[in-house]
Design goal:
By secondary structure, the protein is an all-alpha fold. It has 17 helices and no strands. It is about 70% helix and about 0% strand.
Length: about 375
């Protein structure tokens, strides 16, 4: 039993800097989902928590693009700057064994728990089209981001393979195809977002922007592809990547914090191109600027700090899926939250909520997620 749980803290072959970024991302997301618990907290704390969920998900998108783009780029290079059917199939099998089992497990739990409140056309959730071109239903809220991830997994190798086949010499491309495909997909997504927001969308305050723009899959795919571009730069311009990592990290940090500080102001006062296109574009670029430095931090001598960070990073997928609708919302529905509660009472329950999320996520990882992920080796 203890041996199984030790896998959560395995640091071998991991990049600590990227684990740290994933750790920060999941902590921010969970803080965002539990903001309703902080109504009794001091105002400065509540101000700091504003937008935490938004930033956490954007960190996940760019980091995912960087990691998955790196895998795809290696396949592309290995196959002589082309992708055949076997390479595409291998990419899909490895990604889907990593993501689908957990997703379907939690989806089934949602259906059982919220059976009487299920939205119409529940079948959409099984094919990742619940938020393809529309505002997702208030059911399994976290799944909108999985739509973006899965569509990018499906689309990216196909577009890259076709580009190399159609425009390369004798069916072969070159490294620049990876860059141009990434730029092309970003441009296409950005155009779709402009069309969507100008001709199909009618919304008012901040909350509508959050659901009706931020969470619509086909107009948010670009966040993944900024990670792809970061991978290309790291491979093609390794010297620039290494020599400017600290400068880029400072720019990325200041830019990210600045954009998030004005996020609500931009949405309320500059709807349209600024809030729907420019904000997301600049935020993704700033997050990508963090990657040169963070990806260079392979290990750290502070193991007492590294192991918990790595552990949370490793279980972050399960953590992401269960913390909101299954734990946070269930807790809210089962209690008259905060009525006459002191700050200390609220704080105790808040800590217990985090502990519950961690324990449940760890159990899912050890007894389901990791065994299912390990199965993919049989098909590799």
């Amino acid at each position: 039993m203890l041996k199984r749980f030790s896998a959560i803290f395995e640091t071998k072959d991991r990049v600590f800097g990227l684990d740290l970024l994933r750790f920060i991302a999941i902590i921010l997301v969970v803080m965002g989902h539990a903001r309703w618990m902080t109504d009794n907290f001091p105002k400065p704390i509540r101000i700091l928590l504003h937008g935490s969920g938004i930033l956490g998900v954007e960190l996940f998108f760019v980091l995912s693009g960087f990691l998955i783009g790196g895998i795809l780029l290696k396949q592309f290079e290995k196959n002589g700057y082309a992708l055949d059917l076997d390479a595409i199939k291998n990419f899909w099998v490895r990604r889907w064994f990593r993501t689908l089992p957990n997703y379907y497990l939690i989806l089934i739990v949602y259906i059982l728990v919220y059976f009487n409140d299920m939205p119409g056309r529940i079948w959409r959730y099984f094919f990742f089209v619940q938020s393809l071109w529309n505002t997702p239903a208030a059911f399994f809220d976290e799944s909108w981001s999985l739509c973006i991830e899965e569509i990018s997994y499906l689309l990216s190798p196909i577009v890259l393979a076709l580009s190399a086949y159609l425009f390369g010499k004798k069916g072969k491309g070159n490294l620049s195809f990876f860059l141009w495909v990434s730029i092309g997909l970003i441009a296409l997504t950005s155009i779709l977002r402009v069309i969507y927001c100008n001709y199909f969308l009618f919304f008012g305050p901040n909350e509508s922007w959050n659901n009706a723009v931020r969470e619509v899959a086909l107009i948010r795919l670009d966040a993944i592809y900024y990670g792809f571009i970061a991978v290309y730069i790291s491979r093609k311009y390794a010297g620039f990547w290494e020599n400017n990592k600290m400068t880029l990290f400072i720019i990325g940090t200041l830019g990210t914090l600045g954009l998030m500080a004005f996020q609500k102001h931009l949405v309320l006062n500059y709807p349209g191109m600024i809030s729907d296109l420019v904000f997301f574009t600049l935020l993704s670029i700033c997050i990508a600027c963090l990657l040169p430095y963070l990806s260079s931090i392979k290990t750290t001598k502070w193991q007492s700090m590294a192991k918990p960070i790595t552990g949370v990073s490793i279980i972050s997928y399960s953590f992401y899926l269960v913390n909101g609708g299954l734990i946070s919302i269930s807790l809210r529905q089962l209690s008259n939250w905060g009525e006459g509660w002191s700050v200390s009472e609220t704080g105790i329950i808040y800590v217990l909520y985090w502990i519950t999320c961690l324990v449940v996520s760890a159990l899912i990882f050890v007894f389901f997620e990791k065994p299912m992920t390990d199965l993919r080796n049989r098909f590799h």
